Amino acid sequence: MTGLIFNIKRYAIHDGPGIRVTFFMKGCPLGCWWCHNPEGIRGDIQEVDRVDRIGDKEFTVKETVGKHYSVEQLLEIVKKDMVFIEESGGGVTFSGGEPLMQTGFLAEALRAFSEEEIHTAVDTSGYAKREDIDSILPYTDLFLFDIKHMEPEKHLKYTGVSNELIQKNYDYILEKGKKVIIRIPIIPGFNDDDEQLNVFRDFVATRHGTNVDRIDLLPYHRIGSSKYKKFGLEYKMKDVEQPSTERMDRLKEFFAESGINVKIGG
Ligand code: SF4
What we know:
The structure is a single chain. The protein is an alpha/beta fold. It has a single domain, classed as Aldolase class I (TIM Barrel). It is built from eight helices and eleven strands. The chain has a nine-stranded mixed β-sheet. The protein has a two-stranded antiparallel ribbon with strand order 3-4. It is globular and about 50 Å long. The model has no long low-confidence stretch (mean pLDDT 95). Residues 28, 30-32, 35, 37, 40-41, 96-98, 125, 159 line the site of iron/sulfur cluster.
């Protein structure tokens, strides 16, 4: 069995504890307006035109996005970085896209890393079938769980899916005793009004127990916007400003009142 991956990031330091290797898997059931990895949304290999510049000349180059890897190939890649991973208390992270779109491969890969005693994390939107979550639970040490909005309709409008299944899966993962880092993208005009922030904070405060390690507040940025045209997608957030450092500091204090550690960025 192989998995379809569009990027591999070595020496990653924002995707879980320590130094990690992060595998970005293709395919996502959501289509968030602010997604900075639009190349991860479609679940197939894509051929796109990339424009390169040398001086004032432009060249169009064909680019293939997505490549199949076996579990053995992933192990080989990670073993090259084991010194850094071990010394830093790191591991591997599966991100995307939505890694649970390729559950068979994901479960096989997580099991292989667990057998090597390498820490495993899954960065998920939480939008997945219960049986798919069950298949990875035994081999996943940490979930990086995205919570984007608490209202189903607004969630549907901005991501393409309602949030009901996501919230149920979040509770389920906590019930199963798994460690979680909550990731909240702070998107001006979408989820950063006072009312929504209060609902967010109440939601995490009432459920955190001992298994929620931290809340990561991820400030909106436009880093991925230049990729949209290449993938034939419309970038709908072009008029949205990035939140200021002062604003993020205030939000950090606000969420810290839930009693959970808060970090800005991943
Ligand atoms: S869930 Fe993540 S990968 Fe999927 S569209 Fe949203 S931001 Fe992009």
